[in-house]
Amino acid sequence: MNRILKNTFTVGGFTALSRVFGLVREMLQSRLIGAGVEQSAFALAFALPNMARKLFGEGALTAAFVPIFKGEVEKGNKEEALALARMVMTSILFLLGAVVALGVVSLSVYLETASSVSPRTSLTVSLVRILLPYMIFICAAAFGMGTLNSLGRFAEGAFMPAMLNIVWIAALAGLWFFPSFPVSMRIRAVCWAILAGGALQMLFLMRCMAKRGYAFRFRLPDFKNPSLRLVWKNTFLGAVGAGAVQINYMLDQVLGQCAAPWAAGVIGYAERLMDLPLGVVGVAFGTVLLPTFSGHFARGDEAGARKALKTSVIQMLVLMLPASIVTFFCAEWIVSIIYEGRAFDQMATLRVSRALAVYGLGLCFFSLHKCLVPYFQAQRDMKTPLKVTFATVVLNAVLNILSVCFLPKEWRHVGLAGSTVFCSMTGCLLFVLAFIRKIRYNTRQNFHS
User: Fold this and answer.
1) Count of the separate structural domains present in the chain
2) Residue 29 is part of which domain span?
3) Can you spell out the DSSP letters for 166-197?
């Protein structure tokens, strides 16, 4: 158990470093870009590669791949594990490469041929076109991170996000010396910096994999391989759920645009502040627990997996409860110190702080969710997370639409944040009930056997 906490602190420490860089980045971006239309266009454009990352990088594919890969490693089958990793990575690169090529060409044609396109739409489409190739880089890097985590190497993957933030900060710092640049030009420069940072992340993780004896080589997938077929079967189930979440996220972005022109950008600023404690604690636990649980279940040690879950949840709550309280009561003070200045005025501070205070109430639920989901994924049970996901996605969509339709304009974005918190709480409750049912079922099976 000390090993789990040690690995969690390793991931949390590097994540904290990344989040500190992220705060510096946000401080610069809020002053150079503001919380207006340009930031909202960027938030929508950046959501697309993030959607791919959650589907094919650290999301459904990794959740399906890690338990099977870890099982091969636990059995001492390094060659089989290496072959599986190479086939999966090759599949990802070919699939995303085709999607990116088609997307870039289609968007270019649209910008050239479309008539009467609003400046806001034109900016959003152009930013999407720039950021699409980032999908390939970040998904390959995230998959490499999952592979290294399965081998017990957490530091390299945890450091990876900091690399992007360093490049991002460097670009913003350079823009600081060109105050005459229009905001639209500044946000385009930021997108190009993100693209360069993503390429750097991918090369770094590929090098780390090679040093651990798992160098990437192109290998055509053999779909007769039972392990590969199981990976893609579970990926499909996970992708359906993750896709529903991302569709819901995109719906949130659209509803944010409907709520107010500034709402999507404001919510984005609040989410990035929430990501600091959530990443240091919640994401760190989730990152460590998936390969940990997978190892227990690969050895047939279900009692050890339950003990690891119980201890991790207690440790997580001890760390997250104080963060939740501080975030709720000090939201406006936090936002004012980090963001306010130049293009980010007092009204923007008030709007972001309202959303941040609500998100603060959900920090424990967000973190608990990241501890519970890997427990089911490690058992190659993708159906339970899928069912919970659909239930919360539908609930979230309904609550968000009600918020936009019935709340006052200045409080609609707060309603969107509150919906996210309530749905996370509901999801945690459903996972706990599923956990109890699974224990009772296994107990009956053992009794009858």
Assistant:
1) 1
2) 2-448
3) HHHHHHHHHHTT-TTS-HHHHHHHHHHHHHHH
